[in-house]
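User: For documentation purposes, I need each entry recorded in a consistent format: the amino acid sequence on its own, followed directly by the corresponding structure tokens. There are two entries in this batch. Please keep commentary to a minimum and don't merge the entries.

Assistant: Recorded as requested. Entry 1:
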Amino acid sequence: MGHGGGGALSAELVEHLLVPAYGNETLAALGDCAQVTLGGARLAMSTDSYVVRPMFFPGGSIGDLAVNGTVNDLAMSGARAAFLSCALIVEEGTDMTVLRRVAQAIGTAAAAADVAVVTGDTKVVDTGHGDGVYVNTAGIGLVPEGVDIRPQRAAPGDAVIVSGPLGLHGVAVMSVREGLEFGVEICSDTAPLGGLVQAMLAVTPDIHALRDPTRGGLGAVLNEIAAASGTGIVLAERDLPVPEAVANACGFLGLDPLYVANEGLLVAFVPREHADAVLAAMRAHPHGAGATLIGECVADHPGMVVARTGLGGTRVVDLPLGEQLPRIC
């Protein structure tokens, strides 16, 4: 299970087994999506599988995740998502009402993201060999001219900005799965981020890196970008937008909000001279109203992420070994 958690074990599996087996430079870039050229057009392509349990949770469902997750992976290259495929793996005995709810959620989310589901597949597996419904989506989109967004471009001096509060999705799923109550309902933040990214690019096409911190949370994504770019990252711990309900839930369960999954959040690495304007554009968009400057890239300690604590000290934000909470997406 640790190898599917988005942390160090996942990175080990990808880098030492899968990338050598498939062997090409496009895959080796290890972005949220692949960027390829076809017939003179720059395309972004991504695929992801969704096995979340339970399938329905406060604020969303496996259907929303399947669309938004792939649309967001494309958006992290600056691409406008155009088309999706959707494959369903259904366990024998699954109620048709459940399957209908999943399919309708996929259709509704696709319409909200302005993307079309144009092809798909359905397989049924024996009882006990699945868990209700699994979904795989793949997507393609166009990357605008003059846009070059990838982890390797993060550079010393860049401002690090997150688009909203941390940890909502992971805590929302966990609360339903475990039957926990925290005094207030916590809803998943699942949302399509393509429009937000386009609003940011309207300010400047020179955004260096974007990622959506899903499995492994913000902590894992920051470590991946620091390693890919050879820069250090310094966070201001007191500026991290962790909602009180999430902080209380994580404190109760012994979790660090930095490693809890998000599904409607992005982290941006923006040249300092553009940071204020990009931040203002994000806050003017519905999916970026809570955008916050949380840190910066530095030349010191390359490949390492550290956080300045409220007491004036620092702590290292390591790449987690695996996911704190399995089956989050």
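Entry 2:
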Amino acid sequence: MNYQIELRHLHYFKTVAEELHFRKAAEKLFIAQPGLSRQIKQLEDYYQTALFIRDKRNVELTEAGHYLKKEVDLLFTQMNRIKEQVEKIKDGKLTSLKLGFIGSAVQTIFPQLLVNLKKEQPLIDITLSELSNEVQLDLLLKNQLDFGFVRIDNAQSPLQSIPVMTDHFSLVVPKNEKNKKVKKVNLQNYREESFILFSKAYSSSYYDLVMSIFQDHGFEPHVTLKTVNALSIFNLVSQGLGVAIVPSSLKKGYHTHVDFLDLSHLPQRTTLSLVWNQGNRNPGISLFLQTVDSLI
């Protein structure tokens, strides 16, 4: 073999692996299909193994191809991060951080944390994205997100987490003067109600935790609607379409026509956690954690 593997070979491989179609990949890369096939053949010769299974109709990744695709994705993510970091330094910035969060985080420590970070580390650029728990965890694993504020039981390696806030639950009902007289909620009184809950797409572990509340009270709720958006839940409840169980912290910051009935007498608690990837080499990671440590 008298040639060296270059970055373009991996770029071509990545495109074919995403398209699983040589002609479409060639068009996307603006090269001729025979040239693309030749580049992939050189890559397979270099690794001394087939990366694709090809016939006249289908293109599939081999086991080695799947492994290389995963590593190449990480490589290009890191290269993009290096480019971003170099550009930040050129512009006089220290680094950038991409933060994911669920809606309930905004009603807790999250805003004050951002204020403190901007004050202590003004040279760090922040990008915020409201995302579901599951999407945040996936992006953290790919190093496409630096930190996530999520509700999960525990983080699996290489992810690491610290608890930010533990919260009890509240029952959300349409606003009514009679609610002010309720001292202690008995969920048995609501067993015939329709429930509007955060879906499993919000967080599977969180959903299971809420369902355990009903299990403790000996009934299965009639769940008529599921969503990942708190405001949607409150609006649906206010229109009389059902009741809901949510973290108590969500009663802050929303102006909706509902009442929150405290469920602190129940044993279930939900924890908002800060999660990051231990393998993330962003220099802003340690600085952000220092700011978090000063608040919790």
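Summary note for entry 2:
The CA atoms of residues 45 and 226 lie 51 Å apart.
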